[in-house]
Fold this protein.
Amino acid sequence: MRGRSSFLKYWDFGEVIFLNHGSFGACPKPVRDRQNELRELMEKEPVEFLARNMLRLQEEARKALADFIGAQSEDLVFVPNATHGVNTVLRSIPFKEGDEIICTNHIYFACANALNFISSLSGVRIVNVLIPYPSRSREDLIDPILSSISPRTRLVLIDHITSPTALIFPIEEIVRELEGKGIPVLVDGAHGPGMVPLNMNALQASFYAGNCHKWLCTPKGSAFLWVRKDWQKKIRPLAISHLGGDYGPNENPFQVEFSWSGTMDLTPYLTIPYALRFLGSLYPGGIEELMRRNHELTLYGKKVLAEALNRNFPLPEEFIGSMVSFPIPPREAPWPLSKGFWDPDQERLFKEFKIEVPVIYWPQPPRRLIRISAQAYNEKWHYELLKEALRKIFPTSG
């Protein structure tokens, strides 16, 4: 039954079947309306909004977010995106030649670039741990990381939910093992908030950088960096501005410096309380029910992909959240051809079938992945349409 989602009215996709919430998120109209109201207030009286009221408004937004992610508001600050948060931590720690930073082959490409840059500055060695894909057990995800630890390890950068392969790492176990050995863990939680339940106070990683503009559907440029209290005096904003070093004896320098790093549009952060209320209103069980529903719909989408491509993909359900990656047949041509190259099959799905879904290069077999997402506006028949399209693109698959 190809009915229209009752929630699709809040988004503006036109005729496109949007199965790519994972890339940039998608902000619903009611939240954008709230942002526009805030922008109007800002431009009506910029000094009143930015100078007199901004610190209070930021704290209100931080408290709402802290309640949702199981944190104290004084332990988190706003940053434009999770990559910005990762860079903030990497630039604040004084690495030296001979130190090691551990990451995995599932790392987000932008964060891999950040590590390479830090390595070029300090001589720190980047240890890239190979995690098998598909992974079939928690040990597949944990043991290679733990076995790579050495006396020179200074930091472990681990994805909570990976971008290319959409795997949920068991970060609770990883953090417990590593932090118990005195090794700080930086969690790239770009996909965490709104996809899986979070509790920063219980997790107790050294650092966690998470986006709000993905699965919490806030406007673009809305994210946070959570820093454990023992690290806060060492973590400095990438841009030191008016409030850098300008704080009283009873103020938290971590909070003060990050609260103002120059004039910019801060309204994406200020919409967080409204976005949380909006998403929480869609189902009787609030955002927790929405996350469960999206997970179940993703599992349905995985089953449909298996039917479309006539192959099984053994990936345990516990590793899957609101998106999943599935192997598709490799292309004979070298891939990718250039940094601006779009996979021809992704372009064909969009132009011929009006389906927006990413095709992702993966350096090891199976070489190419298609990654589907599930958000409130998606329905089962969206994945059925994708199945029909894939059968036309890969008529002999399997």
User: Anything to note?
Assistant: Residues 35 and 271 are 6 Å apart (CA to CA). Residues 8-19+282-393 form a domain with the Aspartate Aminotransferase, domain 1 fold (CATH 3.90.1150.10). The radius of gyration is 21 Å. The mean pLDDT is 93.
